[in-house]
């Protein structure tokens, strides 16, 4: 089985379970996990980037947070 076969199987599995995947991404648990990851990523980015980038980092974090979880 080649890489393309695996990709196609993954696509097929997603299509067959699209509703469950979408529900999982919009769940309270996904919100908790994503918030934790985003908080750590935000802190790291602010640590290494100049202070002038803080508002952009906050903006990017907010956009990402809106895509995953239930809030």
Taking Cα atoms only, what radius of gyration do you get, to the nearest Å?
Answer: 17 Å
Number of strands: 0
**Biggest sheet features:** none
Count of domains? 1
The helix/strand order is HHHH
> Could you tell me the mean pLDDT?
89
Percent range of helical residues: over 70%
- Span between N and C termini? 40 Å
Instruction: Tell me, briefly, the overall form.
Output: elongated
Low-confidence runs of at least 5 consecutive residues: none
Count of individual helical segments: 4
Structural class: mainly alpha
How much of the polypeptide forms β-strand, as a percent range?
under 5%
Write a structural description:
The protein has one domain. With 71 residues, the protein is mainly α. Helix 3 runs antiparallel to helix 4.
Concise overview:
This protein has 4 helices and no strands. It is mostly helical. The N and C termini lie far apart (40 Å).
Q: Which keywords apply here?
A:
mainly alpha; 4 helices; 80% helix
List the helices and strands and how they pair.
Layout: H1 3-16, H2 18-25, H3 28-48, H4 54-67
